[in-house]
Amino acid sequence: MNLDQELREVPLSEETVFEGILINVSHMQVQLPDGRTAPREIVNHKGGAAMVAIDADENIYMVRQHRVAVDEITLEIPAGKLEAYGDDPYESAVRELEEETGLRAENVELLTSAIPTPGYCRELLGIYMATGLSQHEDHLDEDEFLHVVKIPLKEAVARVMSGEFRDAKTIIGILMAWQKLHG
Amino acid sequence: MNLDQELREVPLSEETVFEGILINVSHMQVQLPDGRTAPREIVNHKGGAAMVAIDADENIYMVRQHRVAVDEITLEIPAGKLEAYGDDPYESAVRELEEETGLRAENVELLTSAIPTPGYCRELLGIYMATGLSQHEDHLDEDEFLHVVKIPLKEAVARVMSGEFRDAKTIIGILMAWQKLHG
Predict the structure, then answer these.
(1) How much is the pLDDT for B139?
(2) Global confidence as pTM
(3) What pLDDT score was predicted for residue B143?
(4) Selected residues 19-58 of chain B with any CB under 8 Å from a CB in chain A
(5) How far apart are CA A76 and CA A70, in angstroms?
(6) Exposed, middle or buried by CB within 10 Å (0-12, 13-18, 19+), for B14?
(7) Closest CB to A172 among B11, B42, B172
(8) So what's the pLDDT on residue A2?
């Protein structure tokens, strides 16, 4: 589509200005569509994966955990970060579900590959729906502390709509699963 | 709830390790529930605001723009970042809507205050729904380049469900508005 050329920012240079364990930050110079240049700060992140696991009675499994960045105890769908750039989020979602809840699934389908914060971060987040669940043993990472909670999907939708569930991937997973099953 | 004490990570120290224009990064040391310590990388961001604007025929207004971080042309609901820590996202959502689309709204209600990436970022994102729209002049920031597109809300839901609309705030705004109006 030709009109889109009027929108495009052309990267002129990119330089790493912070290297961390979980993220890097780079400074980019871009050429704006009108020819001027502008700076952009970009967070590099390996990406993540999340899973809405739905049992035969249409309950979903959520994990209760403390998020120190926002100093809140949250209820979120099982999720984790990818271990390396280019890792398959499908495998990661399946692994995180089993690690955090002990659940394995017969059927796993991609709901969406979300962009949590396109304005400044390269993270992509694969959000999956799992059905045909069976219970096995969980095996948390040694620095993970969480409780698993089972909630009817319908109640989870209500708790999204009331503003209680605020984690973006959790809202997306719950509402897309609901829309897929009942939309 | 007493059990939640078993989940809590206690911040022991926090040090800024990168200061940018849009974001800062800090290193935190936390005490885990079992007494050990662990490092945490935290992105500090002023927060943002976004608006699903719905007209009398149930069309929504979206902006087509280039996101250089993910090198994609996206369709997103109007949104922007807060100018300072502590700014009111409501005012920012109203301002961004008018700047980007020229629309003013009689009714604005909060859908949710989302946490886009609770694992590593302090950003909160107020997502609002606007109705009772009237058209005025837009006035884009000088480094904003975008096209406004009007789409039926029902079609927007379908384009979320097909995986085409991948921006997290856009998915959340569209599905919460749909659920509110038709759930």
Answers:
(1) 80
(2) 0.96
(3) 74
(4) 20-23, 25, 27-28, 30, 32-34, 36, 38-43, 45, 48
(5) 14
(6) middle
(7) B172
(8) 55
Please determine, for residue A1, whether its predicted confidence score (pLDDT) is greater than 60.
Answer: no
Residue B2 pLDDT: 56
C-alpha span between A111 and A97 (Å, rounded): 15
Chain A residues whose CB is inside 8 A of the B77 CB are none
DSSP string, A92-109: HHHHHHHHHH-EEEEEEE
Token reading at A175: 């509402």
Q: Give percent above pLDDT 90 in chain B.
A: 90
- Chain B window 142-181: which residues touch A at a Cβ cutoff of 8 Å? 143, 145-147, 157, 160-161, 163, 166-169, 171-172, 175-176, 178-180
Do residue A72 and residue B42 have CB atoms under 8 angstroms apart?
no
Average pLDDT, integer, range B77-86: 94
Count of C-beta atoms within a 10 Å radius of residue A130: 24
Q: Is B33 exposed, middle or buried (0-12, 13-18, 19+ CB in 10 A)?
A: middle
ipTM score = 0.96
What pLDDT is attached to residue B1?
A: 47
Mean residue pLDDT of chain B comes to 94
Closest partner CB to A41 (pick from B4, B9, B22): B22
